Amino acid sequence: MKKAIRDKLLLGWFWVSGLLILVILLAIIIYLIWRGGPFINSQFILESPRGFPLGTEGGIFPAIKGTLWLILLALVVSFVPGLLTAIYLSEYGRSGRLAEIINLLVQSMAGIPSIIIGLFVYAFGVVTLGWGISLLAGGLALAIMIFPVIVVSSRDALLAVDENYRLVANSLGVSKSYTLYRVILPRAAAGITAGLLLSLGYAAGATAPIMVTAAAVIASSSGALLEPVMALPYHLYILFNEHLSLNYAYATALVLVSLVLLLNILALLLNSLQERMSKQ
Amino acid sequence: MNAVELIDFNAYYGSKAVLQNINVEFSPNSITAIIGPSGCGKTTLLRSINRTAEMERGFKSQGDIRVLGKSIKEVRNVSALRRQVGMVYQTPVALPLSIRENVLFGPRYYGVKNRSDLDAITEKSLRQVALWDEVKDRLKRPAAQLSGGQKQRLAIARALAVEPRVLLLDEPCSSLDPASTGLIEDLLTQLAEELCIIIVTHNLFQARRIANETAFIMDGRLIEKAPTQKLFASPDKPETRGFVSGLFG
User: Fold this and answer.
1) Does the domain spanning A42-278 belong to CATH 1.10.3720.10?
2) Model-level pTM?
3) CB within 8 Å: B109 and A178
């Protein structure tokens, strides 16, 4: 009797915790829609900031473009080394000494505060290599930030592929790369892509690494590598911090959250696809 | 010449000895069953022959194994050895490819490119396991759609497609229904006309039905190997008598 009550209490607690998370998330989104929603229109999305002080009128188009450029560049830079590291960890190194060390390094890398990554790229790229505040420097900082996320998510997607496939392939004498290419990678593709999307969402929202490396108050964000760009989180920070326009700050926040949410929902769909595939 | 021969073979995981001083010979064109209590080292013995055991961490071995007269320790190209020694596992595994591509998984790697050759290998291998008539109209469909028994026959076809000389089977029927088991036993008997077949089984009746010879292993030691009839009817060793009469297991 007593144990049954304890079970019920515990279950109730789980429910309350789950609900709490849902309520907080919904509250943020609803609040943003309430405060920012009315200011979102085609002009806001498709025009550049105007007015005096700058940002009090016009739109945020260059910031949207800048953020997309930044995360695209971060992905291009970190995808291949991230995936190759993951492949080494799951297929070649496994439980070896080197794999242990790499795992530890990746973990430590994930623990570096993002502002430190920003400062490092500032010192190394912006100053020493003379890139200046630029898309290139910001993309690189974000690439370093999402690299461990890509390694871990790709590694786990690869490890989730049925071990029996590797066993069968090994006993046929075929090489690991052949098995990887014909069986393992196609099987893990959905999960790997989901991890990439999640890391993109993470990069899109990051402010600290781009503040000192890439972001400008106003820029055209043309995609030129050595020019500064505008970015959604930084624009939001400026609008809010300088009390330029709270209305536009909330509207910008809504756009940013929608972008991140969209990426996460896509990732979720791909993950469930991978799960269904692995149950076949 | 013996198809497979173990000479003073010892195997260890870490410091634990799993196989001790095994001397045994497997003849070509015959089925040898390996029986013994769980954890006695049967699977390790099988996996030592195609050198997949050494992929486990901490695996060490002493002594020698010869496949078709050649020491496997001197084989530089493990891939060539594994091509000669096919293996089928307990769980029926269909690779996430079509039925046809499952069969061709090995041959494509070994460089068969010609379409008519690939077709011929597919048909021959599937006929060898009596699966051709059941699947010939849906070769391009995912192999995952097959039943457990069909998947296991497909696994055997996949192993046969690279033309091995030895076929190792690790309890291939333990997750199958009696009808599928019967089918597989029949086709193993036929395959034994061309191949050396070594099958680990928990099912003593299965050993009696299909094996020409049976080896009994206990605690990592080979207790006795004899023609199946003799091993079950009048074993030399008291341990064998105890095991085959069901006193322990």
Assistant:
1) yes
2) 0.86
3) yes
